[in-house]
Amino acid sequence: MTRTRFALLGALGVVLLASPWWGRRALRALAYFHVREVRVVGTRYLIPRDVVAAMRVDTTASTWDYLRPYASRVNTLALVRHAEVERELPGTLVVHVTETAPIAMVPGAGGLRVYDARARVLPIDPTRADVDVPVIDRPDAVITRLLAGVEAMSPRLFARISSVSRAGEQIIVQLDRGVVRAGIDVTPERLAGAGLVAADLDRRGQHYTELDLRYRDQIVARLQ
After folding, report:
1. Taking the model in full, what pTM does it have?
2. Count of domains observed in the chain
3. Does 124 share its domain with 215?
4. pLDDT tens-digit series, residues 109-123
5. Around Cβ 13, how many Cβ atoms within 10 Å?
Protein backbone atom coordinates (compact mmCIF):
# COMPACT_ATOMS: atom_id res chain seq x y z
CA MET A 1 0.00 0.00 0.00
CA THR A 2 2.81 2.39 0.93
CA ARG A 3 4.64 1.72 -2.33
CA THR A 4 1.46 2.26 -4.29
CA ARG A 5 0.85 5.55 -2.49
CA PHE A 6 4.36 6.81 -3.24
CA ALA A 7 4.02 5.73 -6.87
CA LEU A 8 0.74 7.62 -7.22
CA LEU A 9 2.18 10.73 -5.57
CA GLY A 10 5.23 10.52 -7.80
CA ALA A 11 3.05 10.24 -10.89
CA LEU A 12 0.99 13.20 -9.68
CA GLY A 13 4.16 15.23 -9.21
CA VAL A 14 5.34 14.47 -12.74
CA VAL A 15 2.00 15.45 -14.22
CA LEU A 16 1.83 18.69 -12.28
CA LEU A 17 5.41 19.65 -13.02
CA ALA A 18 4.83 19.07 -16.67
CA SER A 19 1.93 21.48 -16.47
CA PRO A 20 2.14 25.29 -16.57
CA TRP A 21 3.08 27.36 -13.52
CA TRP A 22 -0.03 26.25 -11.63
CA GLY A 23 1.50 22.75 -11.31
CA ARG A 24 4.02 23.90 -8.71
CA ARG A 25 1.32 25.97 -7.03
CA ALA A 26 -0.90 22.90 -6.69
CA LEU A 27 1.92 20.86 -5.14
CA ARG A 28 2.70 23.64 -2.66
CA ALA A 29 -0.90 23.52 -1.42
CA LEU A 30 -0.62 19.85 -0.41
CA ALA A 31 0.06 19.34 3.30
CA TYR A 32 2.03 16.22 2.38
CA PHE A 33 4.82 18.47 1.05
CA HIS A 34 5.02 20.85 4.01
CA VAL A 35 8.57 21.21 5.34
CA ARG A 36 9.01 19.04 8.41
CA GLU A 37 12.81 18.88 8.58
CA VAL A 38 15.77 21.04 7.56
CA ARG A 39 19.10 19.20 7.37
CA VAL A 40 22.38 21.15 7.29
CA VAL A 41 25.43 19.55 5.68
CA GLY A 42 29.05 20.74 5.56
CA THR A 43 29.36 22.89 8.69
CA ARG A 44 32.35 22.74 10.99
CA TYR A 45 32.34 26.09 12.75
CA LEU A 46 28.78 27.19 12.11
CA ILE A 47 26.02 25.97 14.41
CA PRO A 48 23.36 24.27 12.24
CA ARG A 49 20.50 25.93 14.12
CA ASP A 50 21.92 29.33 13.15
CA VAL A 51 21.75 28.28 9.49
CA VAL A 52 18.15 27.17 9.91
CA ALA A 53 17.27 30.42 11.69
CA ALA A 54 18.79 32.45 8.84
CA MET A 55 16.59 30.63 6.31
CA ARG A 56 13.38 31.77 8.05
CA VAL A 57 11.33 28.71 7.13
CA ASP A 58 7.81 29.17 8.52
CA THR A 59 5.21 26.55 9.37
CA THR A 60 3.43 26.91 6.03
CA ALA A 61 6.57 26.38 3.94
CA SER A 62 6.50 23.70 1.27
CA THR A 63 9.35 21.76 -0.28
CA TRP A 64 7.97 23.02 -3.59
CA ASP A 65 8.63 26.65 -2.66
CA TYR A 66 11.35 28.43 -4.61
CA LEU A 67 14.60 27.57 -2.83
CA ARG A 68 16.85 30.39 -4.01
CA PRO A 69 15.63 32.86 -1.33
CA TYR A 70 16.58 30.36 1.40
CA ALA A 71 20.08 29.96 -0.04
CA SER A 72 20.46 33.73 -0.41
CA ARG A 73 19.67 34.24 3.28
CA VAL A 74 22.20 31.63 4.36
CA ASN A 75 24.81 33.24 2.10
CA THR A 76 24.57 36.43 4.19
CA LEU A 77 26.12 34.66 7.20
CA ALA A 78 29.71 35.76 7.82
CA LEU A 79 31.09 32.23 7.89
CA VAL A 80 29.36 31.08 4.70
CA ARG A 81 31.30 31.16 1.43
CA HIS A 82 28.56 29.43 -0.55
CA ALA A 83 25.26 27.72 0.21
CA GLU A 84 22.78 25.73 -1.85
CA VAL A 85 19.41 24.32 -0.85
CA GLU A 86 17.79 21.28 -2.38
CA ARG A 87 14.50 19.50 -1.72
CA GLU A 88 14.28 15.92 -0.53
CA LEU A 89 10.68 14.86 -0.96
CA PRO A 90 8.28 14.78 0.63
CA GLY A 91 9.15 17.14 3.51
CA THR A 92 12.87 17.82 3.88
CA LEU A 93 15.11 20.69 2.80
CA VAL A 94 18.85 19.97 2.66
CA VAL A 95 21.27 22.89 3.00
CA HIS A 96 24.77 22.32 1.60
CA VAL A 97 27.17 24.83 3.16
CA THR A 98 30.73 25.67 2.17
CA GLU A 99 32.29 27.64 5.00
CA THR A 100 34.83 30.45 4.74
CA ALA A 101 38.10 28.81 5.76
CA PRO A 102 40.12 30.25 8.66
CA ILE A 103 43.69 30.97 7.57
CA ALA A 104 45.41 32.65 10.51
CA MET A 105 45.01 33.85 14.08
CA VAL A 106 46.11 37.21 15.47
CA PRO A 107 46.75 37.83 19.18
CA GLY A 108 44.99 40.76 20.83
CA ALA A 109 43.95 42.09 24.20
CA GLY A 110 41.00 39.70 24.36
CA GLY A 111 42.93 36.68 23.10
CA LEU A 112 43.37 35.19 19.65
CA ARG A 113 41.06 36.25 16.80
CA VAL A 114 40.56 34.25 13.63
CA TYR A 115 40.99 35.67 10.11
CA ASP A 116 40.28 34.50 6.56
CA ALA A 117 42.37 34.76 3.38
CA ARG A 118 41.27 38.38 2.86
CA ALA A 119 42.39 39.36 6.38
CA ARG A 120 38.78 39.70 7.56
CA VAL A 121 37.96 38.64 11.10
CA LEU A 122 35.72 35.58 11.38
CA PRO A 123 33.18 34.95 14.16
CA ILE A 124 35.00 31.88 15.45
CA ASP A 125 35.99 31.48 19.11
CA PRO A 126 39.27 29.48 19.13
CA THR A 127 38.71 28.60 22.78
CA ARG A 128 35.63 26.62 21.76
CA ALA A 129 36.52 25.44 18.26
CA ASP A 130 39.54 23.47 17.11
CA VAL A 131 41.28 26.01 14.85
CA ASP A 132 44.70 24.78 13.71
CA VAL A 133 46.15 27.68 11.69
CA PRO A 134 49.34 29.76 11.94
CA VAL A 135 49.62 32.80 14.20
CA ILE A 136 50.50 36.15 12.59
CA ASP A 137 51.42 39.31 14.46
CA ARG A 138 48.75 41.55 12.89
CA PRO A 139 46.00 41.38 10.22
CA ASP A 140 47.94 41.45 6.94
CA ALA A 141 46.31 40.60 3.61
CA VAL A 142 49.70 39.90 2.00
CA ILE A 143 50.41 37.17 4.54
CA THR A 144 46.89 35.74 4.68
CA ARG A 145 46.73 35.45 0.86
CA LEU A 146 50.13 33.78 0.90
CA LEU A 147 49.00 31.30 3.55
CA ALA A 148 45.80 30.55 1.64
CA GLY A 149 47.86 29.77 -1.45
CA VAL A 150 50.17 27.49 0.52
CA GLU A 151 47.23 25.66 2.07
CA ALA A 152 45.72 25.01 -1.37
CA MET A 153 49.03 23.94 -2.93
CA SER A 154 50.76 22.11 -0.07
CA PRO A 155 48.52 21.25 2.91
CA ARG A 156 51.40 19.30 4.47
CA LEU A 157 53.62 22.39 4.53
CA PHE A 158 50.75 24.55 5.80
CA ALA A 159 50.33 22.16 8.73
CA ARG A 160 54.01 22.67 9.63
CA ILE A 161 53.77 26.47 9.83
CA SER A 162 53.37 27.72 13.39
CA SER A 163 53.72 31.47 12.80
CA VAL A 164 54.42 34.08 10.14
CA SER A 165 55.67 37.63 10.62
CA ARG A 166 56.77 40.51 8.42
CA ALA A 167 60.03 42.34 9.12
CA GLY A 168 60.40 45.23 6.70
CA GLU A 169 60.60 43.69 3.22
CA GLN A 170 61.04 40.18 4.56
CA ILE A 171 58.62 37.47 5.59
CA ILE A 172 59.66 35.06 8.32
CA VAL A 173 57.91 31.70 8.36
CA GLN A 174 58.41 29.59 11.47
CA LEU A 175 58.20 25.87 10.75
CA ASP A 176 58.20 23.11 13.32
CA ARG A 177 61.97 22.53 12.84
CA GLY A 178 63.39 25.77 11.50
CA VAL A 179 62.74 29.11 9.84
CA VAL A 180 62.05 30.09 6.23
CA ARG A 181 63.16 33.61 5.31
CA ALA A 182 61.79 35.17 2.12
CA GLY A 183 61.17 38.46 0.38
CA ILE A 184 57.82 40.20 0.58
CA ASP A 185 57.02 39.07 -2.98
CA VAL A 186 57.44 35.36 -2.25
CA THR A 187 54.86 33.15 -3.94
CA PRO A 188 53.06 30.07 -2.58
CA GLU A 189 54.93 28.01 -5.21
CA ARG A 190 58.26 29.24 -3.87
CA LEU A 191 57.29 28.42 -0.30
CA ALA A 192 56.08 24.99 -1.40
CA GLY A 193 59.55 24.44 -2.88
CA ALA A 194 61.06 25.28 0.50
CA GLY A 195 58.72 22.73 2.05
CA LEU A 196 60.09 20.03 -0.26
CA VAL A 197 63.66 20.96 0.70
CA ALA A 198 62.73 20.87 4.39
CA ALA A 199 61.13 17.44 4.00
CA ASP A 200 64.21 16.14 2.14
CA LEU A 201 66.55 17.39 4.87
CA ASP A 202 64.35 15.81 7.51
CA ARG A 203 64.50 12.45 5.71
CA ARG A 204 68.29 12.62 5.62
CA GLY A 205 68.50 13.54 9.29
CA GLN A 206 70.07 16.94 8.60
CA HIS A 207 69.00 19.73 10.92
CA TYR A 208 68.60 23.22 9.53
CA THR A 209 68.16 26.53 11.28
CA GLU A 210 67.04 28.49 8.24
CA LEU A 211 65.98 28.12 4.63
CA ASP A 212 66.67 31.36 2.78
CA LEU A 213 64.57 32.09 -0.33
CA ARG A 214 65.89 35.59 -0.99
CA TYR A 215 68.29 34.41 -3.69
CA ARG A 216 67.01 34.06 -7.22
CA ASP A 217 66.26 30.44 -8.21
CA GLN A 218 68.07 29.14 -5.11
CA ILE A 219 67.17 27.92 -1.66
CA VAL A 220 70.05 28.36 0.76
CA ALA A 221 69.93 25.97 3.69
CA ARG A 222 71.83 26.93 6.81
CA LEU A 223 72.54 23.72 8.71
CA GLN A 224 73.24 23.19 12.37
Report:
1. 0.78
2. 2
3. yes
4. 889 999 999 999 999
5. 19
